[in-house]
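STRUCTURE:
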């Protein structure tokens, strides 16, 4: 004789949502750290990156450095809010990942491979933050048995 447990489906959805949120938080933290390092490198020495002549979006690499540094710091800070499953962190995480995509698209001629990698990471972050529903969210430090 088998019995059904109505809470098991909800528990598996919650575990899946928790995993996706943690994935997004870790990816946002890694992306933030990488953007911080890139921003510092651009601010410290403009000669690290190849500058392309006659490009439509011509901005000083030091300015790009400050942009990447600011986005990296914001991403790093918001990732801690994602570890606590805060709704504000999900909203800001999607916004910051979108801005990271935009900034890396505009800096494609200066560092193309790295920009494409950062765009891909940001797309995964947006997907992970948008796929979770509010009712699937977990309570931080909740015991798995629900006691």
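SEQUENCE:
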């Amino acid at each position: 004789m088998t019995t059904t447990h109505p809470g098991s489906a909800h528990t598996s959805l919650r575990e899946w949502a928790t995993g996706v949120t943690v994935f997004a938080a870790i990816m946002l933290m890694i992306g933030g750290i990488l953007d911080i390092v890139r921003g510092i490198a651009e601010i410290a020495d403009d000669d690290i990156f190849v500058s392309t002549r006659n490009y439509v979006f011509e901005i000083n690499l030091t300015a790009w450095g400050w942009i990447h540094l600011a986005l990296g710091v914001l991403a790093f800070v918001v990732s801690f809010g994602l570890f606590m499953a805060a709704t504000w962190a999900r909203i800001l995480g999607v916004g910051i990942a979108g801005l990271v995509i935009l900034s890396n698209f505009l800096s494609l001629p200066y560092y193309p491979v790295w920009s494409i990698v950062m765009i891909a990471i940001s797309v995964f972050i947006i997907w992970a933050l948008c796929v979770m529903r509010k009712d699937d969210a977990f309570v931080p430090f909740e015991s798995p048995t629900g006691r």
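REMARK: DSSP finds four helices and no strands in the chain.
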